[in-house]
Automatic annotation (TrEMBL):
<comment type="function">
    <text>Catalyzes the isomerization of 5-dehydro-4-deoxy-D-glucuronate to 3-deoxy-D-glycero-2,5-hexodiulosonate.</text>
</comment>
<dbReference type="InterPro" id="IPR007045">
    <property type="entry name" value="KduI"/>
</dbReference>
<feature type="binding site">
    <location>
        <position position="248"/>
    </location>
    <ligand>
        <name>Zn(2+)</name>
    </ligand>
</feature>
<dbReference type="GO" id="GO:0042840">
    <property type="term" value="P:D-glucuronate catabolic process"/>
</dbReference>
<feature type="binding site">
    <location>
        <position position="201"/>
    </location>
    <ligand>
        <name>Zn(2+)</name>
    </ligand>
</feature>
<protein>
    <recommendedName>
        <fullName>4-deoxy-L-threo-5-hexosulose-uronate ketol-isomerase</fullName>
        <ecNumber>5.3.1.17</ecNumber>
    </recommendedName>
</protein>
<comment type="pathway">
    <text>Glycan metabolism; pectin degradation; 2-dehydro-3-deoxy-D-gluconate from pectin: step 4/5.</text>
</comment>
<keyword id="KW-0479">Metal-binding</keyword>
<dbReference type="InterPro" id="IPR011051">
    <property type="entry name" value="RmlC_Cupin_sf"/>
</dbReference>
<feature type="binding site">
    <location>
        <position position="199"/>
    </location>
    <ligand>
        <name>Zn(2+)</name>
    </ligand>
</feature>
<dbReference type="GO" id="GO:0019698">
    <property type="term" value="P:D-galacturonate catabolic process"/>
</dbReference>
<dbReference type="GO" id="GO:0045490">
    <property type="term" value="P:pectin catabolic process"/>
</dbReference>
<dbReference type="GO" id="GO:0008697">
    <property type="term" value="F:4-deoxy-L-threo-5-hexosulose-uronate ketol-isomerase activity"/>
</dbReference>
<feature type="binding site">
    <location>
        <position position="206"/>
    </location>
    <ligand>
        <name>Zn(2+)</name>
    </ligand>
</feature>
<dbReference type="InterPro" id="IPR027449">
    <property type="entry name" value="KduI_N"/>
</dbReference>
<dbReference type="GO" id="GO:0008270">
    <property type="term" value="F:zinc ion binding"/>
</dbReference>
<keyword id="KW-0413">Isomerase</keyword>
Length: 281
């Protein structure tokens, strides 16, 4: 029996998304149960074929089996994988290689036919592996990335409630990838807004994973076209899919950290179509 549970999410037109009520918005874009202990849960999205997932091994390792939509014997047969640990210490085994990941450490795995397993050092404090996977046309070397390896940018201000540190971890300035990019943005105490001014990028889609949010607090994720925005209320350790036509921004009742992941045809991090805050509706 496979350790992997998955569901498909299909692409939606922005004109259709305008009519979605709260339940439909959450069903199309929110990934609430991504971090379930003892399981691997993932969504296969039709947006650039990005896979968004979480693995939480406890008493035994978990194997990342290929899911039926991939039509492959191994998960990474035609894919690359980016992983960031947001829990206790653990290991990722890729074929005959093993990588230990502590909190907020990342790992890139290039496409290759090999078994992938996740394990925790301590079942009582399990590792929580958040991952994104995108189709790959070439095989690039595996690489572990720490925050010390990342391209770090500090932006915003406390006065604008968006003082934050962006850690670009799986990006082309750090290592070669086919199309996947991932990083982690940490908001300073007192700051709650991310990705402001908001933007879209037609050349790639994105996914956000929110964590380090107290269990009694919440984050409001904003999406939609700039003049037709919608919102989704989210909790700690939940993910959301952002179509290429949508803004992706949030404000929370407490500071937090989020992981961003992108896939598409453009690897230029700065390729964005900005929207002034005063133009949002």
């Amino acid at each position: 029996m496979s350790d992997v549970k998955y569901e498909m999410r299909y692409a939606s037109h922005p004109a259709d998304a305008k009519s979605y009520d709260t339940e439909r918005l959450r069903a199309e874009y929110l990934f609430a149960d991504i971090m379930t202990e003892g399981e691997i849960n993932l969504i296969y999205s039709a947006y650039d074929r990005l896979i968004v997932g979480g693995a939480v091994p406890t008493a035994r390792p978990l194997t990342l089996d290929a899911i039926p939509p991939l039509r492959a014997d191994r998960f990474l047969h035609r894919r690359e994988l980016g992983i960031i640990n947001v829990g206790g210490a653990g290991t990722v085994k890729a074929g005959d290689k093993e990588y230990r990941l502590d909190y907020k450490e990342a790992l890139y795995l290039g496409k290759s036919d090999r078994d992938i397993t996740f394990a925790s050092d301590d079942a009582a404090r399990p590792a929580r592996f958040y991952f994104n996977s995108a189709p790959a046309h070439a095989e690039y070397p595996d690489k572990k990335i720490t925050k010390a390896d990342a391209v770090v940018v500090e932006l915003g201000s406390l006065e604008e409630s968006n003082h934050r540190v962006i850690n670009k971890m799986i990006v082309n300035q750090v290592l070669p990838t086919c199309q996947l990019q991932m990083g982690m943005t940490e908001l300073k105490p007192g700051s709650v807004w991310n990705t402001m001014p908001a933007h879209t990028h037609d050349r790639r889609m994105e996914a956000y994973f929110y964590f380090e949010l107290p269990d009694d607090q919440a984050v409001c994720h904003f999406m939609g076209q700039p003049q037709e925005t919608r919102h989704i209320w989210m909790r700690n350790r939940q993910a959301v899919i952002s179509p290429q036509w949508s803004i992706h921004s949030a404000c929370a009742t407490h500071n937090y950290t989020f992981i961003w992941g992108m896939a598409g045809e453009n690897m230029d991090y700065g390729d964005m179509d900005g929207c002034a805050t005063t133009e949002l509706k």
